[in-house]
Specification:
With 119 residues, the chain is mainly β. Helix content is 0%, strand content 51%. A hairpin with a 5-residue loop joins strand 7 and strand 8.
Length: 119
């Protein structure tokens, strides 16, 4: 069953850094059991290594009108570790939420620098 994907409008969300990013390691599926390799997984479009960037998204709750903070792990392509200082504002673009049949949500996107370019 395919994942459902939804674009996220980050213009209405304040996103701050959790100060941590981890490289996403590739899997070797050639044997009987898949095993994690020491090589980074790469983005299909850019060829850049993928990172799981820890962030907190502050957004309004439609029901209460109050702001809520949600912790996200966003998978981003980047030549270098995209982690930024804790609580510094992070600008993301092209963010998509993917939901699988179990209801697990995964976020992906790109870190935009102040000039709008991605790292």
């Amino acid at each position: 069953m395919a994942n459902a994907t939804f674009p996220i409008d980050t213009a209405r969300i304040r996103i701050v850094s959790g100060g941590h990013a981890e490289p996403v390691m590739a899997w070797d599926r050639s044997g009987e059991k898949p095993r994690r390799t020491e090589n980074p997984e790469r983005d299909e479009k850019t060829g850049l290594p993928l990172w799981d960037l820890k962030v907190s998204a502050v957004m309004p709750n439609v029901s209460t009108g109050q702001d809520e903070m949600n912790e996200w792990t966003v998978r981003v392509p980047s030549a270098e570790n995209p982690a930024q200082p804790v609580l510094s504002e992070v600008h993301l673009r092209d963010v998509v939420a993917s939901v699988n049949w179990r209801g697990d949500v995964r976020f992906s996107g790109a870190v935009a620098q102040k000039g709008g370019d991605t790292k």
